[in-house]
Amino acid sequence: MMRKTIFLVVMCLILGADSLSGMDWGFSAGAGMCLLRQKEVQDVYGIGFPIGIQAWTGWKNVRISAGLEYLSENGRALPLDGGQDDFPLRLIVTSIPVAVYYQTWIRDIFLAAGGGFSYSWYKEKWAGLDIVVKGQKWGPFLALMGGYRLNRRWSVFGNIRYDPIPTGKSSLLVPEVKLGGLKISAGVMFTL
Amino acid sequence: MKPFRLLLVFFLAFSLSSLPRPISLVKISKGTPGLIDILKSCQIDVLQELETCFLARANRNELGPLRRKGVSVSVLDRDSQGKEHFLVRVVSSARLKVLTGRGHVQEVEPDLFLFWADSGDPLTLLPPDFERKPLPRFSILPFLRTHPHPDGLTPGLQVNDVIGTIVGEVNRANLRSYVQGLQSFQTRYTSTANCEAAGQFILNHFLSLGLEARFQPFTFGLGISTRNVVAEIRGRTDPEEIVIICGHYDSTSSERLDHAPGADDDASGVAAVMEVARILAGYPLDFTVRFIAFSAEEWGLYGSRYYSDGARASSERIIGVINLDMISYADTMPEDLDVVVNTASSWMAERTGWAADTYTGLTVRKSINPSFIVSDHSSFWDRGYSAFCAIEDEDYHNNPYYHTPGDTVDTLNFGFFEEAAKTALAALSDFAQPVRLDRPKTPAGLVAESSTYASAFMAVKNVHLTWQAVSDAAGYNVYRSTLPHLGYTKLNTSPLAAANFTDRALKADAAYYYVVTAVWSGGVESNFSREVESPAELPRYEQPEVGRDAFPTIWRWRG
């Protein structure tokens, strides 16, 4: 039900924006790295490399975007008291970020600042063991974006986003596990 | 002038707030979910566990967080520092009146009162015919745990045919003779010469059996000197593992200085200890057995308190304590034997019940009652050891001769007494394990080391077991339980070739208990080794000193 609702909201944003005269809309795809906010979680999984696609629409100084992001990381359970065994882990985080930006253009360069919410599904699996932790939760994020228009249709962009992805779950390592952090990404943008 | 006054008021308020806060003695009611965890997180000095509450010392700063967490706390003595408090059992309003004239009295539970005095020695103010226990001086917080209840668990234990033979050696005539011998001292009230002579009588018995035996002298109250009697059979496999069987040889009555025969209370318990020592002296055992006759029990458990304090201070590994106190009077027949435990010792009641069913004809009635504190097992509970009290009736006032000059050998039921002694011997033998010559040697030196591994959400642990190889063993079996000393299940499908084993990917926050056996090629199995525990305590993740977070604090989301 939740997935359907989110899909409908995204489609309404895109189609609704298209119906307004003078609006741009397009798609973007990017990849980057995620510096996990919690050192303990980063010790388990290292730096993450998320990929994502987004649909966006812009009108004057406002840009609205919605997308899909995917992060899949391999990690190793931390030995807390000197153990030598190896427990491989896999973490998958799928997010739908929805954001509103204020943007400004300086010739072919645009700069944008904004924020929004992301809805994330996460799954941690212990390889070879029957241990899987799953969940989903809303979380806020803040973002800065800059780009350069190569031609009428194509642009390149860079994005810095602070997206903590709270889970509401506690663990031995941290009082509340947060699977996000500072995400730095770059990609290409296509304007219809 | 106004700023000066303001400054003065501020200074006075600051001075008052920094005054040392009195440490109160409080009652913390049980019932709050996760109470033990709350007490641990607040580092409360818990002195006594009872059936419905804990008694603890705390100042106002410590009580605030407890109350905020929904814990019900009531203050019993606002300023408890420098005072000795006694728990006193009072069963009638007339007796309560006697007590209230001597000092402060606060009801803690039905029939159980806290007594203390603002000045003077409370031990001398407290009438001697009141059953009492001084509150422990040390916090029992480190020993408090939430224990799963072993009820209905498959015992997973070994039947040892040697124990059947051992139990058959209990001699009713010997029991009568030992009780008669102790009664013949007229009184064994601690502080009398007769009590000391009775101690010598017990020591001589142990020495005559060829056991290592000694007095353990101590002083209590206002300088009263007396001594426990301690004898030992050293274990053959893991001698540092100790099982204790005990009773108290002192007695009391309304004519305590001249005439306190104390046949049931507790010549019966001591006589059973003497008989058990006589029988076990002829058998090699895997673990050490100590036979103890305590003194000054009737004064307030001082003998067992002295002993258990010393045992804890020297980190003795006491598997369990069997306290025999009044095991020979039967108000109805057939009489059963009550085995009273606290929550942490409930495994002992289960195993004693199992041993009684397996090796004797007596029925054991198990009772979990942390408020049953007026005998020597309670001193061991206070120091974190498993212990139980075996008694003819948990309501010991069923014996009309209790603490009277009429408590004599002719009031005892020796049929029941013999069965009770057999049950105690069966339980003791089950814990200490007679060596079986037709089987492989019991593996010695079992050690468990845990390694915990944490992911972002979960943690597991591996438990690595090592033990000394048994020379003629074809292999080994490893058993695990989630309860101490009960409910073992075998982990390996075929015998292990090496003297080590790793149990992988267990719940990190659960306790596990292990024993191993050696196996001959035909499948004949040894006794269980000593039990080792992988505790439920979780290690902390030690973070690197530098760079606690991946990026500066400014980036952290504080919502």
SSE topology:
The complex is a heterodimer of chains A (192) and B (559).
Chain A: H1 2-19, E1 24-36, H2 39-45, E2 51-59, E3 62-76, E4 78-79, E5 88-106, E6 109-126, E7 131-149, E8 154-163, E9 181-191
Antiparallel strand pairs in A: 1-2, 1-9, 2-3, 3-5, 5-6, 6-7, 7-8, 8-9
Chain B: H1 2-17, E1 24-29, H2 35-41, E2 45-49, E3 53-58, H3 60-68, E4 73-77, E5 86-89, H4 93-100, E6 104-109, E7 112-116, H5 122-125, E8 131-134, H6 161-167, H7 172-183, H8 193-208, E9 212-220, E10 224-233, E11 238-248, H9 263-280, E12 287-294, H10 297-300, H11 302-313, E13 317-324, E14 337-341, H12 346-359, E15 364-368, H13 377-382, E16 387-391, H14 414-432, E17 447-454, E18 459-466, E19 475-481, E20 489-490, E21 500-507, E22 512-519, E23 532-534
Parallel strand pairs in B: 11-12, 11-13, 13-16, 14-15
Antiparallel strand pairs in B: 1-3, 1-4, 2-3, 5-7, 5-8, 6-7, 9-10, 10-12, 14-16, 17-18, 18-21, 19-20, 19-22, 22-23
Describe this structure in words.
The complex is a heterodimer of chains A (192) and B (559). Chain A is mainly beta. Chain A contains 2 helices and 9 strands, in the order αβαββββββββ. Chain A has a single domain, classed as Porin. Helix content of chain A is 13%, strand content 60%. In chain A, strand 7 and strand 8 form a beta hairpin. The relative contact order of chain A is 0.20. Chain B starts with a helix and ends in a 25-residue tail after the last strand. The C terminus of chain B is likely disordered. Chain B has 3 domains: 123 residues, no CATH class; 257 residues, Aminopeptidase (3-Layer(aba) Sandwich), CATH 3.40.630; 88 residues, Sandwich (Immunoglobulin-like), CATH 2.60.40.10. Chain B is α+β, with helices and mostly antiparallel strands. In chain B, strand 11, helix 9 and strand 12 form a beta-alpha-beta unit. Strand 4 of chain A pairs antiparallel with strand 17 of chain B, so a sheet runs across the interface.
